[in-house]
């Protein structure tokens, strides 16, 4: 796993704008190099704010939206269109505002989908979709260019909560039951899938995230207890923070990028 870089912005609004600009550049570069790009979205306040900032940015036209694959790192196992689903927030903030190819928007199954109320079957369905996108010999997941994750106050990422069994799952996608944050039933990419991404970006804003961020950057952190410590990219890992979330960084870590 790559050691992380830490970038600190003045506040959440500036963090969202900077992350959106960075995402445009990363997608456009990948499309120029390979013809297409693949990103993994996250929910939560900061993740949704990044998508809204991207929708409002003139630079969004640098992306060829028809050649972008969109995936999710986790999802609340709720009915389609439920306001608590990450997909719902992402569509409202960005996805319904840009000309994406619907076949390349890979939402995680909902509780009213073909698997009914069985999150394990839904997780297996999403794993099969990832495997198909990876192609023959490509491994269990496709080549994600950027995978974004929010960091919870308890240091969870995606729906990988401290000390839950999903943290040790070696498959591509896990069903999560008994999550300490409602709703308790979820679907999540696993550590092996998160670590398959070229770049992993961990987003955090607000003082309630400061302790989790500090623990996640500690060199001796245990990912089973501090899940954000286990999310690292193949080529690069970025912690994108506002000043409040960066208030408990280990000494000497972090670079302020905006006044």
What is the level-2 CATH architecture name?
3-Layer(aba) Sandwich
Query: Span from first to last CA?
Result: 31 Å
Number of strands: 10
Indicate the structural class.
Answer: alpha/beta
Query: Are there runs of 5+ residues with pLDDT below 50, and where?
Result: none
Principal-axes geometry comes out as globular
Biggest sheet architecture: 7 strands, parallel
Q: Helices and strands, in N-to-C order?
A: EHEHEEHHEEEHEHEE
Write down the domain tally. 1
Please report the number of helical segments: 6
CATH topology: Rossmann fold
Strand content: 15-25%
- Helix share of residues? 25-40%
CATH class identity: Alpha Beta
Query: Largest sheet, order of strands side by side?
Result: 3-2-5-8-9-1-10
- Mean of residue pLDDT values: 95
Question: What Rg do the Cα atoms give?
Answer: 17 Å
Task: Give a verbal description of the structure.
- There is one protein chain.
- By secondary structure, the protein is of the alpha/beta class.
- The protein has a single domain, classed as Rossmann fold.
- Helices cover 27% and strands 18% of the residues.
- The protein is built from six helices and ten strands, in the order E-H-E-H-E-E-H-H-E-E-E-H-E-H-E-E.
- Strands 3-2-5-8-9-1-10 form a seven-stranded parallel β-sheet. It has a three-stranded antiparallel β-sheet with strand order 4-7-6.
- Helix 2 (44-56) links the parallel strand 2 (37-41) and strand 3 (68-72).
- Helix 2 packs parallel to helix 3 (86-93).
């Amino acid at each position: 796993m790559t050691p992380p870089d830490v970038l600190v912005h003045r506040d959440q609004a500036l963090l969202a704008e900077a992350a959106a600009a960075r995402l445009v550049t990363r997608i456009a570069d990948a499309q120029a190099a390979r013809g297409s790009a693949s990103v993994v979205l996250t929910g939560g306040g900061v993740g949704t704010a990044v998508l809204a900032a991207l929708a409002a940015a003139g630079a969004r036209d640098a992306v060829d939206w028809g050649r972008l694959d969109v995936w999710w790192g986790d999802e609340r196992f709720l009915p389609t269109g439920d306001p608590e689903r990450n997909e719902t927030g992402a569509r409202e903030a960005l996805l319904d505002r840009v000309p994406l190819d619907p076949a390349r928007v890979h939402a995680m199954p909902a509780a009213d989908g073909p698997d009914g109320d069985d999150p394990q079957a839904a997780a297996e369905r999403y794993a099969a979709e990832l495997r198909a996108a990876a192609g023959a010999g490509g491994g269990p997941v496709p080549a994600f260019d950027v995978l974004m994750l929010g960091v919870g106050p308890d240091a969870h990422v995606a729906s990988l909560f401290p000390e839950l069994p999903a943290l040790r799952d070696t498959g591509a996608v896990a069903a999560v039951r008994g999550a300490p944050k409602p709703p308790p039933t979820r679907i999540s990419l696993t550590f092996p899938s998160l670590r398959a991404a070229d770049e992993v970006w961990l987003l955090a804003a607000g003082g309630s995230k400061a302790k989790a961020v500090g623990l996640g950057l500690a060199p001796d952190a245990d990912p089973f207890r501090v899940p954000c410590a286990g999310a690292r990219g193949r080529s690069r890992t970025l912690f994108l923070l506002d000043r409040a979330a960066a208030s408990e960084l280990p000494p000497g870590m972090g670079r302020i990028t905006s006044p």
